[in-house]
Amino acid sequence: MSCFQLRTIAVLALICSGTVLGEVVINEIHYDGDPKTDAIEFVELHNAGGKNIDLSGWHFSNGIKYTFPANTSLESGGYLVLAENPAELRRKFKLSASVVFGPYINRLSNGEVLTLRDAVNQSVDRVGYGSGFPWPTAASGAGSSMELIHSSLDNDLGGSWRSSGMQVIAGEPVVFIASGRSGWRYREGTSEASSPRSAWRTLGFNEDNSWKNGRAPIGYGDGDDRTTISMQGKFSSVYLRFRRGWRCECTRTMARWFGSTAKRSRA
Q1: pLDDT tens digits for 38-58?
Q2: Most exposed among 29, 60, 253, 258, judged by the fewest C-beta atoms under 10 Å?
């Protein structure tokens, strides 16, 4: 078979597969502000590639509606934010006008599909997110946004995201938990940990028998774990509590690292 035929087959396979190889990714979504009267919803884009990207004519075709104006560029490694109310978002988060775009048409809902397309209408990135498990629960009504853990992860999977902006009391010192400590309680993420969803994060939460004891590092069996969780192919999130004063929701990717250092904040 000739090289030309091989190249033709490879191109056809790529087109037919529907695989998106974009370097620009939907990196953060804030769909449920607190208080709800604040017009601070936004979608953040990140250029994970090695070159600047011209976003002129790029647009969102699902969920929200917005087309980036001419001469819009996103530098390599850079971020930009598309806001429902750019002025309000800049005021609240002290952002530069150069990285905030909008406003967009419609509002973000508590679960929908967002599709980003380039100037010739090719799909660049797509996220079909939800407001409950296995998507980050603190992003649903607790004031947090949800952010992609790493740009290389599949952002159409709930386990690839985490809640951002966990609140710490001003002036309270940050305490690090040493490797090898006992006192951890964990719950396999086969369902929500509590009802309401955020209750398991509070100091007064009473754990039922679905919670187990563990010693850090906690992971999924790669040779350096004191507590091994069998999660491959079963679930993608783990709920963790430490001495009733520390709480976190983490994905399988994050779970294996909890033996080294971790921040603690009051619930």
Answers
A1: 889 999 999 999 999 999 999
A2: 253
